[in-house]
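Why does this matter for the project? Reviewers at the last site visit asked to see concrete outputs rather than summary tables. In response, this paragraph embeds two records directly. Each consists of the residue sequence and, immediately after it, the corresponding structure tokens. Nothing has been edited or filtered.
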Amino acid sequence: MKRARQYGIAALVLSGLLALQPAVAAPPEAKVTLLTTEPLPQYPGKEVQIIMVEYPPGGADPIHRHDAHGFIYVLEGTIVMGVRGGKEVTLTPGQTWHEGPDDIHSVGRNASNTQPAKFLVMLLKNKGAPILTPVK
């Protein structure tokens, strides 16, 4: 009986300590700025959108897709990009990357926890389609 009581007290103390553990914080969110949307009359139903994405230090994107061809050009900092089933790539200023309309963008993050990163994305997509769609 005494041993059961000791285990009960130990379990109570342990559960209290676990409750004090800090929650894992989500990475800081990226700032996305729409720069332009242009229709493509030569390609009915299509448009181009250009956005600027700014990752704060440690910033990352949730898993998503664009349902578009996405062309990335890095302006500042270092970013890591990847699509489901592909290899992660590390990009620095002046480098480019492409993701297709069927790709699941599984990795998109700032490679640095101390410096911001900034890049442009040109999306060739269906007119009126959202910039991105979250994927679980």
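We now turn to the second protein, recorded in exactly the same manner.
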Amino acid sequence: MTSITKSQNQIRLTADPHKPLSPAIYPTSVFLFENTAELIDFVEAKSPDRFEYARYGNPTRRAMEYVLAELEGAEDAVLCASGMAACTMPVLALLQNGDHLIFTSDSYLKTRTFIEKTLPAFGIATTIVEPDIQAVEAAIRPETKLVFTEMPTNPLYRVIDLEGLTSLCRKRGLISMIDSTLASPVNLNPIRHGADLVVHSMTKYFAGQNDLIAGGVAGRKDLVSQVRDRIGELGAILPAQECYRLYMSTKTMQLRVERQNATTLALAEYLEGHARIRKVYHPMLASNVDAEQARRYLRGGGCLFTIDIDGGFDQMRAFCDATKVFRIGPSFGSPESLLDPPVIMSHWNVAPEQRAAMGITDSMVRISVGLEDVNELKADLDQALQKAF
């Protein structure tokens, strides 16, 4: 990964003739032209670095897009209104009626809902497979156009053979798209392993404060250009003020993520040996089914891990209710540590047999680790487990 500070310094020196330390905020919806000749030049150039109407682009947004592209080693990048927009806009931009998409299981439920329930209305067929190369290859059809996977996946942290996947996609003429939200550019750069596109919910590690919603897409310039057009067409834009705040918070992302990597792994290793824990899911644990792939591709495991508590639903609830430092809430990547029981938070309305097929149990808790002291967090988990039984 390119140093975050270095990448932002480079953008600062090249994107604005005044070379400000921080990007300027352009709170305008309209950009003017001196005359029709300038307007014609703009229309013919079709450059994302020139602006007319803020739904299609803004200098503040463009500054942060350069940073995202630099961090991911991408030809170009575009920001959008949310992580869900980052996942959905490329699909809606690149696929059409009659196309087929392959998506891997163990994923963010809302993404899977979009793929399984929304895309068929557009005439786009989908297949959900396990996150391994053989399953993906077996699902390819003549009409397949895009393969989409998370890395790591959520909430069981599967790690696919990324270079194997991107090599397969290139060989078969398919677009590869990786949701790298759980990793962040600090821990993984999918494009450097051959991916065509990488998407992020920048609400998480980039923003890092639980105070704004944002998404981003980086990758091949020709693909990003199509995604940018669709974002402008559907209005899924990120306002200039939010782009500025995202730019500023990204400056500390590397420091935050590296600390969260270390604290999270320490807690996961500790709880793996706890008598009241049935199983711990973390990409860097030796017990992880894809541990070899994780060590090969990831520089760190991120701030998430999942535990399956001994007992059942009642013990899980008692554990969550007994914590003092950890709070109950969704999302991750923030300074505050959070607990997310998926059976309630995200899968409450999913049929039990379908939850079981997804690997979600009644006693499972996804843990997002913040920036608190590791010993304080360990003590809190310990006392909560004691009270749960």
